[in-house]
C-alpha cells in the first residue's frame, strides 16, 4: 500500500502543473508584523472515530496568523523559522497535540459548538451498547474512560519548494511529558489556479509512535477494571489526503470548500475505544478575510 | 624660418596641453547588489583609462594592495569582492593618489510579505 502511496506522491509532484503561484497576494502570503485574520461560515463536520465520540460540527472556521521576520504564530502553532529561502525553509515549533481533540471537551470546536460527550473526571465502567460492537470486538465508550490530557509537541520541520509544489518533513516530540511519544510527517502539497478557482491538495503520511498511540487509544487499569478491554497501542502510519478549493468573490469574501480523509492504522483501530478506521472532514461555506 | 618658428611654437604648446591632461578612468559597474547586509558581493569591474602616466601604478581597495602594473599591462578588468561600501584608489610609486572611486553596495528593499508556513483555515 505504501509503495502505491509514494508512487502517487512522486507522480503528483512530477505531472501536476498549472499557473505558477508566487508569494504575492494569495492566502499563502502574509504581511509581516500584522495579524492575519479570517473567518469562514458554513456547514461541515469532522468525524470522530471513537466509540460514542461526537462528530465535531464545523460551522465557524477561524484563520489566525501573525508573522514577524522569523517568529510566527499560525493557527495554534508557535514557531521560529531559521531558514527561509526560495527553495528551502526550516523551522522549530511548538503546537498542541490535536489527538486529544476527539476525547476532550475543551477542543476549540467544542467551545464554539459544545457537543454532548466528554470524558468524566473519574472513570466509570458501563456496559458497552451491543449495537455499537463490531463483530466479536468489545468496545468501551469514551464516556467511561480516564481523561486524556493535552500534550504539547515540540518539532522541527523542513520544506523544499519547487514551482507550485512543496515537500515537507516534520518530526515532533511530546515536550510536556504527557505521553512522551513522537510523530514523523512526510507531506507533498500542490496548489494551482484553475480559471478563477484556487486549488490546493495535500497528501501525506504521519507515523505515530507506540507511546503516543498507547496513551490515547490504549486501555489499561486506568480506564477499566475489566482486563478483557485492555489494549496496548502500537506505532502506525496514517495516510491522509486533503483538498482545498477557494473561489474569490471580491477582495474580502470567497467561497471555501475543504475535504479531508485520514486512514487510521490497525494498530489503533483494534482498540476497543475506536469504531471507525478513518477520520473524514468536509466544510462548505464562505470566508471573510479582514 | 617663420614656418619653423610656428611649428616649434605649436609643438611646444600642444605638448604642454597633452601633458596637462589629468589621468582619468571609467569604472563600471560601481554599485553591487547583495541579498542582505553582511553578504559578500562580487564586482567584475571594467576599467577604461585615459592619460595615464607610464610609471608603475598600484590599485588599493580600502588601503589594501590589489595589484600593481605599468600602463601597458594595466588590467582592463578586475574582479573584487566587497561586504560594505569601499574605496578603490590608484596610487603611483610615491603613494600619491591619482584616482579614486567609491564602490557602493546596495540591498534589495526588504519585502513586507512572507510565505505562510501552515495552510490557511487549518485550525481544526
What does this structure look like?
The complex is a heterodimer of chains A (290) and B (124). Chain A has 290 residues and is mainly beta. Chain A has one domain: Beta Barrel (Porin), CATH 2.40.160.40. Helices cover 11% and strands 44% of the residues of chain A. The N and C termini of chain A lie far apart (43 Å). With 124 residues, chain B is an alpha+beta fold. Chain B has a single domain, classed as Immunoglobulin-like. Helix content of chain B is 15%, strand content 44%. Chain B contains 1 helix and 9 strands. Chain B has a 5-stranded mixed beta sheet, with no helix packed on it. In chain B, strands 1-3-6 form a 3-stranded antiparallel beta sheet, with no helix packed on it. The longest helix of chain B is centred in the first third of the chain and has 19 residues. Chain B starts with a helix and ends in a 9-residue tail after the last strand. The mean pLDDT of chain B is 81. At the A-B interface, strand 1, strand 2, strand 4, strand 6 and strand 14 of A face strand 9 of B. Strand 1 of chain A pairs antiparallel with strand 9 of chain B.
**Strand order, sheet with most strands of chain B:** 2-8-7-4-5
CATH topology of chain B: Immunoglobulin-like
CATH superfamily of chain A, please? Answer: monomeric porin ompg
SSE pattern of chain B, N- to C-terminal: HEEEEEEEEE
Structural class of chain B: alpha+beta
- Assembly type of the chains comes to heterodimer
What's the total number of strands of chain B? 9
CATH names the topology of chain A as Porin
The whole-number mean of residue pLDDT values of chain B reads 81
Work out the strand percent of chain B. Answer: 35-45%
Q: From the alpha carbons, calculate the radius of gyration of chain A and give it in angstroms.
A: 20 Å
Q: Tally the helices of chain B: what do you get? A: 1
Amino acid at each position: 500500500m505504501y509503495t502505491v502511496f509514494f508512487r502517487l506522491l512522486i507522480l503528483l509532484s512530477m505531472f501536476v502543473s498549472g499557473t505558477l503561484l508566487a508569494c504575492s497576494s494569495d492566502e499563502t502570503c502574509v504581511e509581516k508584523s500584522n495579524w492575519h485574520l479570517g473567518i469562514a461560515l458554513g456547514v461541515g463536520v469532522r468525524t470522530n472515530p471513537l466509540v460514542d465520540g461526537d462528530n465535531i460540527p464545523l460551522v465557524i472556521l477561524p484563520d489566525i496568523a501573525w508573522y514577524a521576520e522569523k517568529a510566527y504564530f499560525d493557527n495554534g502553532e508557535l514557531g521560529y523559522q531559521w531558514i527561509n529561502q526560495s527553495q528551502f525553509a526550516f523551522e522549530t515549533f511548538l503546537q498542541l497535540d490535536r489527538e486529544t481533540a476527539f476525547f476532550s471537551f475543551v477542543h476549540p470546536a467544542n467551545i464554539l459548538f459544545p457537543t454532548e460527550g466528554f470524558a468524566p473526571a473519574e472513570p466509570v465502567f458501563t456496559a458497552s451498547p451491543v449495537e455499537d460492537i463490531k463483530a466479536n470486538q468489545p468496545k468501551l465508550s469514551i464516556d467511561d474512560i480516564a481523561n486524556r490530557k493535552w500534550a504539547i509537541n515540540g518539532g522541527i520541520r523542513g520544506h523544499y519548494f519547487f514551482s507550485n509544489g512543496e515537500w515537507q518533513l516534520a518530526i515532533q516530540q511530546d515536550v510536556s511529558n504527557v505521553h512522551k511519544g513522537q510523530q514523523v510527517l512526510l507531506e507533498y502539497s500542490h496548489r494551482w489556479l484553475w480559471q478563477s478557482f484556487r486549488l490546493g491538495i495535500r497528501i501525506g503520511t504521519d507515523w505515530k509512535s507506540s507511546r503516543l498511540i498507547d496513551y490515547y487509544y490504549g486501555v489499561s487499569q486506568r480506564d477499566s477494571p475489566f482486563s478483557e478491554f485492555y489494549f496496548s497501542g502500537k506505532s502506525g502510519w496514517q495516510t491522509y489526503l486533503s483538498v482545498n478549493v477557494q473561489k474569490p468573490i471580491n477582495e474580502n469574501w470567497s467561497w471555501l470548500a475543504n475535504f479531508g480523509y485520514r486512514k487510521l492504522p490497525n494498530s489503533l483501530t483494534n482498540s476497543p475505544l475506536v469504531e471507525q478506521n478513518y477520520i473524514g472532514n468536509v466544510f462548505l461555506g464562505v470566508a471573510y478575510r479582514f | 624660418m617663420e614656418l619653423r618658428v610656428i611649428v616649434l611654437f605649436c609643438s611646444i604648446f600642444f605638448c604642454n596641453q597633452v601633458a596637462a591632461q589629468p589621468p582619468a578612468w571609467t569604472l563600471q559597474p560601481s554599485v553591487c547588489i547583495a541579498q542582505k547586509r553582511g553578504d559578500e558581493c562580487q564586482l567584475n569591474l571594467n576599467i577604461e583609462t585615459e592619460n595615464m602616466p607610464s610609471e608603475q601604478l598600484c590599485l588599493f581597495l580600502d588601503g589594501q594592495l590589489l595589484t600593481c602594473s605599468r600602463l601597458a599591462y594595466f588590467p582592463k578588468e578586475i574582479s573584487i569582492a566587497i561586504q560594505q561600501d569601499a574605496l578603490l584608489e590608484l596610487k603611483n610609486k610615491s603613494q600619491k593618489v591619482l584616482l579614486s572611486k567609491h564602490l557602493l553596495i546596495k540591498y534589495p528593499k526588504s519585502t513586507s510579505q512572507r510565505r505562510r508556513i501552515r495552510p490557511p483555515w487549518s485550525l481544526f
